[in-house]
């Protein structure tokens, strides 16, 4: 049960999704009616300068509303009053999409959140001699730009196969307000 007395400034709610595929984007395009081919056809997306298909903006936004709907158990404990987000970065097939809401203010039964949706885009894994062991779509298609590198968005970490290079980027920052019933 979600009660206002159980929530405090600084609390974080979080959702992770790692299943973004071309098949899922095609299904979303069909269900939503947004059949813009930059979301479903690599050739057209490449001709548009995107290097490959990108997720629909409302597809990724749906994970923001899902975060709050899940938290509120789909209206059982409250409702989502407002969201205000800025779509800054593309979401691509293979990305890990992490959506977080951090409580910033509590007024009566209303709770305000900072929202950040972050994409983690795997590039490649190298062994300890610098040889590429595995290359992901981002590495193959050149999704990572010099600007990403200059801004410090490309990072590395050890994984069982070697050293993973990946980009971590806030794709959708914003805010949200929920109202609890109790």
Could you explain how this protein is built, in words?
The chain has helices at residues 22-32, 42-47, 57-71, 137-141, 146-150; strands at residues 12-17, 78-85, 96-107, 110-126, 132-135, 154-159, 162-180. It is an alpha+beta fold and 182 residues long. The protein has one domain: Hotdog Thioesterase (Thiol Ester Dehydrase, Chain A). Strands 1, 2, 3, 4, 5, 6 and 7 form a 7-stranded antiparallel sheet that branches. A hairpin with a 5-residue loop joins strand 4 (110-126) and strand 5 (132-135). It is globular. The mean pLDDT is 96.
Descriptive tags:
182 residues; Thiol Ester Dehydrase, Chain A; seven-stranded antiparallel beta sheet; 5 helices
């Amino acid at each position: 049960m979600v009660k206002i007395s159980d929530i405090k400034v600084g609390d974080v709610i979080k959702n992770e999704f790692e299943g973004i595929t071309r098949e899922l984007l095609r299904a979303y395009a069909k269900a939503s009616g947004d059949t813009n081919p930059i979301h479903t056809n690599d050739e057209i997306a490449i001709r548009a300068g995107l290097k490959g298909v990108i997720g629909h903006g409302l597809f990724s936004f749906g994970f923001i509303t899902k975060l709050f709907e899940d938290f509120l158990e789909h209206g059982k404990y409250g409702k989502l009053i407002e969201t205000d987000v800025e779509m800054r970065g593309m979401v691509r097939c293979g990305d890990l999409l992490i959506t977080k809401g951090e409580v910033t203010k509590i007024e009566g039964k209303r709770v305000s959140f900072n929202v950040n949706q972050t994409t983690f885009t795997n590039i490649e894994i190298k062994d300890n001699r610098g040889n590429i062991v595995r290359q992901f779509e981002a590495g193959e298609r050149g999704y990572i730009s010099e600007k990403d590198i200059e801004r410090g968005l490309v990072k590395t970490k050890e994984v069982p196969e070697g050293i993973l290079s990946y980009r971590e980027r806030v794709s959708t920052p914003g805010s949200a307000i929920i109202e609890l019933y109790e």
